[in-house]
């Protein structure tokens, strides 16, 4: 694949590093959809399909919302609202156009509003769609109206452009609708700065307007009545050709989708005056190519949004794609490299081999990618808040404790921990598997919910892995090579594989999920916690250790490898009279055969029921002060027997597994 980066070759053989303030041209890449195929297909990245995506918006978490149009479903049109998550997954959040939804025209723009979806259409109606897909209009539409775009202020007031009626309207947080400013010419895009000033693309006369909170209107760029693609001073030189989408960044710079020119324009803020430049695309030339600056091509770009890191997103309407613009610097390195330059934009590290190591103590305003080799950095390295360290074939070495930079992986990557201080994993997205390695007995903790966007799972090969008030990804968690997994008020959200010598410690935590697999022998150390796994393969032997007098519960319902369906529950002494039930339903276990338990150790009770009971089971010895309960049609077959130690008792009412857990 061709690379589009400003490249810096690092002369490490001479002991040289690179330390300079770097900036690069804007790179364009397609992040979702395909220019060769228009459709309504969910998926990840380029596997998804769009059909004429319109004005897009972005929420505070970086998720994009895009209205799609021109799709036919059986005998009627439908107009889906698509969501693009920060990991690139695309799916419909609402399908509009049916009579029950009251929207029979294509949606033009959408955003989040008070936790629901705010949507406008080409008939001029504006409404709110709840989580069930029901739409309630807050502004009725009519022929000749066209609600093109809107922006929501901090007080939940909605400012919207109506290109059919040539004005900007206002819907207050209480639902009152009024005209905010008249006299525009086919206004389309609208955005707002932190001072409450509105910026509008006045597409009918190819200008960009500023509207103050006191309704003072001024032109900041473009020459009224003149179309073109000239860059330069906003008021005296710059020209546009049907400007549509507009967005603002944290520095007050504006970005415009100049649809008629098939370009993206930037209005650089110079203390209230603006200079205009073309940052991507080539005027008069349409296409779908990714690339740097004028090498990229667009085909009728419409919507535009900017996130908190300065990434620019464009709905490239006639290409049926979503494009992303960003500055990027590529750093090639060999072992021993040291990179400390601050970068305005994104950094891509590429080692000369997979084991090459580069020390990074610089900064970046956007994401940092490692595509080959290893980057060594402290956990507090200054990557911008909200940015990710992308391990796309490369590894991250952490040399100090603390919160690790948010990790993202489209390929498998590794987190190598070289400190005895606790390292906290707070964000993890992507489809690749994260391998956690450590050269010392390091501690990696999870304190947040990692389950939402991670498909690849975590493979812990050394050290200790603690889940503390957090959740692991909804993907396999593998504990190997003597690793200790401790759940402290946290949970494993998916299948758990425990390899040789692994220990699962449950301290007021829980394990939930669909599968429990192990390869040899492992232990459960439960301290006021519980462990659950349903419909699992659970080979023996299993060691149950570390019980105390607290209300410990271990529960699973496995299928024995001997093809005998059975289940076993263990619990410490608990005099609560809840009976032997689970979820209010009496427990029914099948016959136990063979030799699943040669001995019982620890402070717990063991019970099973039904069928042949203790068929061919050896003698079970119950330690002092422990209880055993045999419930149901239990027989002592094949010479089986149970010997009770001093203080041990027979059947009691036991609290099994909390139905609400």
Structural summary, described in words:
- It is a single chain.
- The chain is an all-beta fold.
- Helix content is 0%, strand content 44%.
- It has no helices and 65 strands.
- The strands form 13 sheets. Strands 1, 3, 27, 28, 29, 30, 33, 36, 38, 41 and 44 form an eleven-stranded mixed sheet that branches. A ten-stranded parallel sheet has the order 31-34-37-39-42-45-47-49-52-55, with no helix packed on it.
- The chain is globular and about 75 Å long.
- It starts with 5 loop residues before the first strand and ends in a 17-residue tail after the last strand.
- Mean pLDDT is 74; it is low at 1-23, 72-76, 97-104, 533-620, 623-640 and 648-661.
